[in-house]
Amino acid sequence: MSELNPIKALLADVPFMVIDGALATELEALGCDLNDALWSARLLAQAPEKIRQVHQAYFEAGADCAITASYQATVPGFMQAGMKEEEAQALIQLSVTLAQQARDAVWQPGQTDRPKPLVAASVGPYGAYLADGSEYRGGYDLDRAGLVEFHRERFELLMAAGRIYWRLKPCPHWRKRWRSPICWLKTQAPKPG
C-alpha cells in the first residue's frame, strides 16, 4: 500500500472503501452506558476491551477503516473526570492502539484477499470537549491561537501512537474556527516516508 496515499492505493484494489459504523451505538448494544461528558472515550479507561471488540467486529464484517474512540478524548476532559495528565495522555494513545490491535487480529501480513485496513483518528471540535451542545453551533469563545493550542497536544499524542490517518469533523459554518487547527496539522504533522 502506498505510504503517501494509502486511500488511493486501497481504492486501486477495491471499488470503494468501507468505513466502520457507529461506535457508540454498538457499545450501547454491548450494555455500555455512555451518558457522560466523555461519551465513548470514558470506556478507554473503564472498558477498553469493549472498544476493541467493536472495532474487531467491524473489521471482521469487512470494514477497510476503523475510526478511533477519540472524538471526545482530550487531556482536559479526562482530567476534569478525575484522571491525572499522564493517564489522560495514555488513554488518547490507547484509542489508536485498540483499533490497531483489532485490525491486526483480523488482517495478517501477506494476506491477499483484501487490502490492509486503515485506522483513522477521530478528532472532535473544541465544543465536543465542552459537552454543552456547542459542537453543533460553534458557539464558544476561543480565538484561533487558543484552538490551535487546544488541539495540538491531542494531534501530537495521536500521531505518536502510530501510523494513522485523520477523521476531522468540521461543519461549514465552523470554517474559520477549524482553519487554524487543520493548517497546524498540515504543516506540523510528520510527513510519510
Task: Show the helix and strand layout.
Elements: H1 6-13, H2 23-29, H3 43-46, H4 48-60, E1 65-67, H5 75-80, H6 85-106, E2 118-123, H7 126-130, H8 134-137, H9 144-160, E3 165-168, H10 175-188
Parallel strand pairs: 1-2, 2-3
Helix pairs in contact: 4-6, 6-9, 9-10
Notes on the protein architecture:
With 193 residues, this protein is mainly alpha-helical. The chain is built from ten helices and three strands. It has helices at 6-13, 23-29, 43-46, 48-60, 75-80, 85-106, 126-130, 134-137, 144-160, 175-188; strands at residues 65-67, 118-123, 165-168. It has a three-stranded parallel β-sheet with strand order 1-2-3. It is globular. The two termini are 12 Å apart. The mean pLDDT is 84. InterPro entries: HCY_dom (IPR003726), HCY_dom_sf (IPR036589), Hcy_S-methyltransferase (IPR051486). Keywords: Metal-binding, Methyltransferase, Transferase, Zinc.
Q: Give the rounded overall mean pLDDT.
A: 84
Structural class: mainly alpha
Q: What name goes with the CATH superfamily?
A: Homocysteine-binding-like domain
Fold-level CATH name: TIM Barrel
Percent of residues in beta strands:
5-15%
Number of strands: 3
Biggest sheet layout: 3 strands, parallel
Give the domain tally: 1
Helical stretch tally: 10
Distance between the termini: 12 Å
Described by the principal axes of the CA atoms, the overall outline is globular
Which radius of gyration do the C-alpha atoms yield?
A: 17 Å
Strands ordered across the widest β-sheet: 1-2-3
Low-confidence stretches: none
Helical percentage: 40-55%
CATH class: Alpha Beta
Please state the second-level CATH architecture: Alpha-Beta Barrel
SSE string, helices as H and strands as E:
HHHHEHHEHHHEH
